[in-house]
Recover the amino acids of this structure.
């Protein structure tokens, strides 16, 4: 993590953990199909480390696909939510830059909305160390689909205060001897305007904001959406961006597809 401010944001989710568990979107089945395809193996029966597991949204879905999943989470508040909801999933407190596991332990390592809080110069070698040969590192982010007009308008309203997830992470891996594949999975969920506002409030830029400023911004946005969706419901559209990284053992150049 690059700076003190960034580190504070990385752990800001602890302050909104209960709201996070209730309001954040999950991930579509097509994402896990794509993970299996690009990783070249099924999740069923795989030993998977879910890094930055948070309240366990992705962890739970990985387990439902049949993975033997271990959750890794640095934040006390997020870990407490996960522990309360998923008592039987092994949970380890730690972070991606220094994985507290022996070499060759997992078939797959996943980061759902979490890789950008690590330093790839540390977290990628750590992942490659802890993965078994032919293992895969899968990273994904639900990104608001700004091709949809109301999302673009909201983005413009909130842009000075927010920072989007990386559009692509493939170039981060150029210095490493790895094979990188990417995929995008569009999907949406139908929720109330209030749920959408609660979801926004769990994003780190809002979590670290002055509470009065945060309330004003979210109220303004809420009012704009209430005018647009008078029945109180909306389709929250996402482009789920997936990157799967695998070691290259036979040659040293980075390849992409
Ligand atoms: C946006 S949340 C994602 C949570 C969960 N994976 C999900 O899909 O909802 C980001 C998570 O990354 C965690 N995190 C922050 N810094 C981290 C690091 N260096 N290594 C691993 N996880 C980290 C935070 O505590 C937080 O739980």
């Amino acid at each position: 993590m690059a700076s003190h401010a960034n580190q504070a944001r990385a752990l800001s989710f602890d302050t909104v953990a209960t709201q996070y568990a209730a309001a954040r979107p999950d991930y579509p089945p097509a994402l896990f199909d794509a993970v299996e395809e690009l990783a070249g193996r099924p999740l069923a029966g795989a030993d998977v480390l879910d890094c930055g597991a948070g309240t366990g949204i992705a962890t739970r879905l990985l387990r439902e696909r049949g993975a033997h999943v271990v959750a890794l989470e640095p934040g006390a508040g997020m870990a407490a939510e996960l522990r309360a909801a998923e008592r039987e999933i092994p949970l380890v407190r730690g972070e991606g830059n220094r994985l507290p596991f022996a070499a060759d332990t997992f078939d797959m390592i996943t980061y759902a909305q979490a890789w950008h809080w690590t330093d790839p110069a540390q977290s990628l070698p750590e992942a490659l160390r802890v993965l078994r040969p032919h293992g895969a590192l899968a990273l994904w982010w639900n990104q608001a689909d700004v091709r949809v007009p109301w999302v673009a308008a909201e983005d413009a309203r909130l842009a000075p205060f927010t920072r989007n997830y990386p559009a692509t992470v493939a170039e981060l891996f150029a210095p490493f001897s790895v094979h990188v594949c990417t995929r995008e999975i569009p999907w949406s969920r139908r929720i109330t305007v209030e749920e959408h506002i609660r979801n926004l409030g769990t994003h780190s830029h809002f979590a670290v904001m002055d509470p009065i400023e945060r309330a004003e911004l979210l109220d303004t946005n809420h009012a704009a959406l209430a005018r647009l969706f008078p029945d109180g419901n909306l389709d929250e559209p996402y482009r789920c961006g997936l990157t799967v990284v695998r070691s290259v053992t036979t040659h040293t150049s980075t390849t992409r597809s």
In short: Residues 10-11, 13, 24, 51-54, 57-58, 73-75, 78, 95-97, 112-114, 117-118 surround S-adenosylmethionine (CB under 6 Å). The first helix runs from residue 4 to 10. Confidence is low (pLDDT under 50) at residues 250-257.
